[in-house]
Design a protein that fits this description.
single chain; 262 residues; alpha/beta; Rossmann fold; five-stranded parallel β-sheet; two-stranded antiparallel sheet; 6 helices; globular
């Protein structure tokens, strides 16, 4: 007699084998692929920088420094010239004066100062056709002040001249001090002593005791009064070389604040 438990073992083994074979052929389901991210939009092209084009002359003009105003250039030349004369005179030479040799001839010949004479740079304050009026509250003029300081350092005395009466000496010195042009009140001041006193006479008087090496003014007759009496400009052709070489045309120092019309 066959026992029931023993008969069931072969059947169970056969079923297990069948199931294991089926497991080897069951297809594996692959996970769904993720959708690709959308492509980024291409950036817009940067705007092109268009540079201006210049001709050779225009490019040179752009590179060139800003020109000096004529008045500033004239004053700078005045300072440079007077300083150079003073430095050369310290070596024992006889400095060349800005004063003419002959009181009649207009040939441009100039005096030679004695060695050791005090060099003086003279500045005329009166505007052309007018009379200087000392301003009560003048603006600081640092550029001019620096140039004058350079001259004093070189041993050049500064002289200020105007046809103002001598009674205006105080207001004039105050204006020069407040503008920074004569901070110590040490400069020479030449004003009209009476109705008959002429600028030329005072210039000659100063030149008799010192060496006037340079003159700065805005009118030709400020350099020599004979310019007023010329019949034709050509008569003074011999004096033209002095401009820029002892005589310097500049604007009045206090033109905007201190002018009176005669």
């Amino acid at each position: 007699m066959i026992r029931r438990g023993a008969a069931t073992w072969p059947m169970l083994a056969l079923a297990a084998a069948a199931l294991s074979g089926c497991g080897g052929v069951i297809p594996q389901v692959a996970p769904a692929a993720k959708p690709a991210p959308p492509a980024a939009a291409a950036p817009a092209p940067a705007p092109m920088l268009v540079l201006p084009t210049f001709s050779t002359q225009e490019a040179a003009a752009l590179r060139a420094p800003a020109p000096e105003a004529p008045a500033q250039r004239g004053f700078a030349q005045f300072v440079r010239y007077a300083r150079n004369i003073a430095i050369a005179a310290k070596g024992g030479g006889a400095p060349l004066s800005a004063m003419l040799t002959d009181p009649v001839a207009l040939d441009g010949r100039r005096r030679t100062c004695a060695p050791g004479a005090q060099p003086v740079a003279l500045i005329d304050l009166d505007p052309a056709g007018g009379l200087f009026a000392p301003p009560a509250n003048p603006a600081q003029l640092p550029g001019l002040a620096l140039g004058l300081a350079v001259l004093r350092e070189a041993g050049v005395a500064i002289a200020w001249r105007s046809d103002l009466p001598v009674e205006e000496t105080g207001p004039l010195r105050t204006a020069l001090e407040r503008a920074g042009l004569d901070p110590r009140g040490q400069d020479i001041v030449s004003l009209r002593r009476d109705a008959d006193d002429r600028k030329q006479a005072r210039l000659d008087s100063l030149a008799a005791t010192a060496c006037i090496v340079a003159i700065a003014a805005d009118e030709r007759s400020d350099f020599d009064e004979r310019f007023r009496y010329l019949r034709t400009p050509e008569a003074a052709a011999g004096l033209e070389p002095l401009f820029g070489d002892g005589w310097f045309m500049v604007e009045p120092v206090f033109l905007k604040e201190g002018q009176q019309t005669q």
